[in-house]
Design a protein that fits this description.
Number of helices: 1
Structural class: mainly beta
CATH topology: lipopolysaccharide transport protein A fold
Radius of gyration: 19 Å
Helix content: under 10%
CATH architecture: Sandwich
Number of strands: 11
Length: 199
């Protein structure tokens, strides 16, 4: 059984206000304040600083999201966050990768996430992905980059670039969608250079 837990808001009032939005509790009041993230005239229902939530499966953490700022928009069922970090965990409950981004949206219903702006996913094994937009599909536990977005993956000195991408959060099994280019680091006793594959 999966649980979605609010970890660490700044104070008791923030706990109450954000729980209203994230957990859609009945009878919560509406707090209107100007904040970034919505279309013109779309004001958040609640705002908090130092926001954190955890998704668990039978007590084992799957991921934890931290943000310097978060605002809930109940009409759109979304939490808009700024200065985002997401820690992903493996089957043993150990942190396996960290995603950072300038901003992100978290669906209150599905807990899917979209990260935008200087998106970096760094694994504990040293693989690094960078792009400008990335989606995390919570139910499938998959990372997806749209096919119009350039993706760069660095691994053991080799560099792969392409458009569109799909992977697990640990970057162990991944696939580029198109226009893949590979630059292989020279190995002792051999030579290497750029190569290209895909349409």
């Amino acid at each position: 059984m999966r649980l979605f837990v609010l970890d660490r808001p700044t104070n008791a009032l923030s706990v109450f206000l954000l729980a209203c939005g994230v957990l859609a509790a009945a009878g919560c009041g509406r707090q209107r304040a100007a904040g970034p993230g919505g279309p013109a005239g779309d004001l958040p229902d609640q705002e908090v600083s130092d926001f954190a939530v955890t998704e668990t499966d039978e007590g084992r953490p799957l991921w934890k999201l931290y943000a310097r700022y978060a605002a809930t928009y109940n009409a759109r069922n979304v939490v808009v966050a700024r200065a985002v970090r997401v820690d992903f965990y493996d089957e043993e409950g150990k942190r396996s990768s960290v995603l950072t981004a300038r901003e992100g949206d978290l669906s209150q219903r599905t807990h899917n996430m979209t990260a935008r702006g200087n998106v970096v996913l760094q694994t504990t094994e040293g693989t690094r992905l960078s792009t400008e937009e990335l989606r995390f599909l919570n139910k499938e536990q998959r990372i997806v980059v749209p096919t119009d977005q350039l993706v760069r993956v660095e691994r053991t000195g080799d560099v792969l670039t392409g458009f569109g991408f799909e992977s697990d959060p640990d970057l162990r099994h991944y696939e580029f969608k198109r226009q893949v280019e590979v630059t292989v680091r020279p190995r002792p006793g051999g030579s290497a250079g750029p190569s290209r594959s895909g349409p």
